[in-house]
Structure formats: structure tokens, C-alpha cells
Amino acid sequence: MLNYTFHFIELGAVALLLLILFVGTLFYASKLKASEELWKFAHEGAGDGVWAWDILTDSAQLSVQYKEMFGFNDDDIDTYREKWNNLVHPEDLSSMRQAVNDYLSGKTDKYVHEHRVICKDKSVKWVLSRGMIVKRDKHGKALRMVGTHADITDRKLLESRLENLAHFDSLCNLPNRTLFNDRFKLALAYAKRKKNMLAVMFIDLDQFKEVNDLYGHAVGDDVLKHTAKRLVACVRESDTVARMGGDEFVILLPIIDDEKDAVLVANKILEAIGKPIKVNKSNLLVNIAGDNKFNTSNQIDLQVSTSIGIAIYPQHGKDEKLLLINADMAMYLAKRSGKNQAKVFDTSMNKSPLQQAQSYF
User: Fold this and answer.
1) Between 342 and which of 123, 192, 266, 328 could a Cys-Cys bridge form, CB atoms 3.0 to 4.6 Å apart?
2) Least confident of 61-65, 305-309, 325-329
3) What is d(CA 42, CA 37) in angstroms, rounded to the nearest whole number?
4) What residues have CB less than 8 Å from 347, skipping those under 6 apart?
5) Nearest 10 degrees: Cα torsion 57, 63, 69, 72
């Protein structure tokens, strides 16, 4: 009788334990769901889109805010991850997948990634994607992730503008001295490694001061912008046209077969720059006898020319500084020889090769 009583008590204890475990599991699941819902509510309220990824079924749940952020409705997005990933910009997809895999494998302790998403109207938005594992199996393998997408498009546009200001000339939208020097160093390193030739041209407008003095800075700026466009039209996409300041420009031809290639480009530039530039009446301000008066004609044709100096690697220098100095010397010889022409550097020009070095770097 005692044995029966003991077994009955034992069975009751087991049943109680199972009941406690069952209730605990329900409580934990409920708590987890409540936590997810609370997190979702908080981020929805902040304007972020929320996603949840079931790793076993490879399916996703996307919040209303998430879909609206990109212009979609419930029927527009397939929730299987590979279909969902089709919305990620192709250039960002590989790095996004790597970031997820690094987090799941434990290489990183958090998942945070910035990438572009293609909206329903084919526009593109930048998002900051964050996520965390909320469920694992008994072996610690991730089963479920939840996360958010925050729209950071405005921030990215601002960053792009700031970067543009740091590396591009604001008037002509050409690379500035800093960006040119970076590209020049890379091109020269490549030329040395491959034993290629490259050319650098120093370009200065011949009558620019007269234009500024006679017509004012607004017209001078217009001439510089026209000049920049014509220079870009004379070279390849792989070449670099930069504004060094004032009316000085420099061109990098990173790969040439021989000196004649650079001379051919220089001749194209001389012809292009020499064509008249039409300036509208609204921009004209003529200085007559010290008084500023508006020109009465509708427009005027302005004509400038340019002097060009050319230096070739490796004949005329083995580093950026010397090549630029020698191209500058050749340009000044072109000016002294009558302007509107191009001169290739010659060693006879080299009186003091290190002078003015600091003015370019």
C-alpha cells in the first residue's frame, strides 16, 4: 500500500513539474511575443519599418510602416527572403548578406547595415537596417530575427553633398586640387607598375583677366564654366579634368601610347576653347570710364584662347610634383611664345626643378 502511495505522489510531482514547465513555456512565449510587439510598437511610432524573419522557413513578416515606406501594399511584396532581397540595390546586396551571415555565425555581435532599397516607383531610398536574434534552438542556432529599417536618405544626400564640396570645385563641378592629387598618385603608381606612359597638362586661359576686368566676375564665371565643359568634351571618361583655381586647369591622361597622343588632345582643346562663347545680356556688365553700365545688346560673343604645357611620364619626371612643375614651365613657355598653343616640356626649360613645388600640393 505504501508503494502505491509513493508512486502516486511521484506521478503527481511529475505532473506538477510538467504543468509548471508548460505554463513557463507559455509565459516565456507570451513574454517574447509581448516584447516583440512592444518593440514593434516603439519603432512604428518612431517611423521605422519593422521586419521579422523566420529563418527555418526563410519567410518574413513586414509591418505596414515598412511597406508604406517604399510605396508597397500587402500584395506587392513576396515575403520569402530571396524575393524580399530583390528590393535591395544590386550593388549593396552582397555586403548586406555578408553582414547578416557574420551576425548569425557570431563573427559580429550585432547586425547593422546601410543599403539602398528599390521602391515600387523605381526610386531608391537609403535605409539603416538593424536586427537581433530573438529565438534559438537548444543548440544555440538562430531560428528567428526581428529588426527595423530606418529611412536615412536625407542623411546620405547631405553626406554626398559634403563629400562633393570637399572634392569638387563648386563653380565648374570638376575635381578640385585634392581629388586630382589623389587620382594622380594612383595613376602614377599604376603606370610605374605596368611600365606605361602617362601625360599631365597644365592649362591657363590667355585673356581671362581682361574678360573679368571688362565684363565683371559673373561673365568671368560663365566663361570658366563653358571652358570646363569644353575641356571635358575633349578627353576620355578615364581621363581627369580638374580646376586648380582661378583660370588654371589641369588634365591627367593616365594611359597614353606615346607623346603624340597628348599633343593630339592638346590640339583638340586649343580648337574647342578658341570658339566664341555667347553671353546673355542679363550677365553683361561693362566697365566704361569707371562707371558700371549694362550693355544694350542681347548677347555678345566672347573669345578667349589657352596656353597648354605638357609633361610625360617617365621622360619628364618620376613623381607627381616634378611632372606638374615641368608641365607648368612648358605652359609658361607657350604663353611667352605667343599664347594659344601647346608646348611639350623640354629639359632645356628646366632651370630650377624644385621651385614652386609647394604651390601645387
Assistant:
1) 266
2) 61-65
3) 9
4) none
5) 70
**Is 247 considered catalytic here?**
yes
Q: Which of 146-155, 209-218, 286-295 has the lowest mean pLDDT?
A: 286-295
Helix (H, G, I), strand (E, B) or coil at 326: helix
What is the C-alpha to C-alpha distance for residues 320 and 270, in angstroms, rounded to an integer? 24
Q: Rounded distance, CA 177 to CA 167, Å?
A: 8
In three-state form (DSSP H/G/I as H, E/B as E, the rest C), the secondary structure along 24-86 is HHHHHHHHHHHHHHHHHHHHHHCCCEEEEEECCCCEEEECHHHHHHCCCCCCCCCCEHHHHHC
Answer yes or no: is pLDDT of 35 > 90: no
The grid coordinates of residue 128 equal: 539603416
CB proximity list for 233: less than 8 A, separation 6 or greater: 272
pTM recorded for the entire structure: 0.59
Strands 197-205 and 306-313: antiparallel
CA of residue 82 relative to chain centroid, distance = 27
Q: Which residue has the cell 544626400?
A: 157
Name the active-site residue from 48, 206, 239, 247. Answer: 247
Mean pLDDT of 269-297: 64
Q: What share of the chain is helix, strand, coil (3-state, %, to 5)?
A: 45, 25, 25
Q: Has residue 191 got a pLDDT over 90?
A: yes
Please measure the distance between the N-terminal and C-terminal CA atoms of the chain and give it in whole angstroms. Answer: 102
Q: Which residue has the cell 535605409?
A: 127
pLDDT at site 169: 87
Closest to 284 (Cα-Cα) out of 240, 348, 221: 221
The per-residue DSSP string of 155-207 comes to: HHHHHHHHHHHHHB-TTT--B-HHHHHHHHHHHHHHHHHHT-EEEEEEEEESS
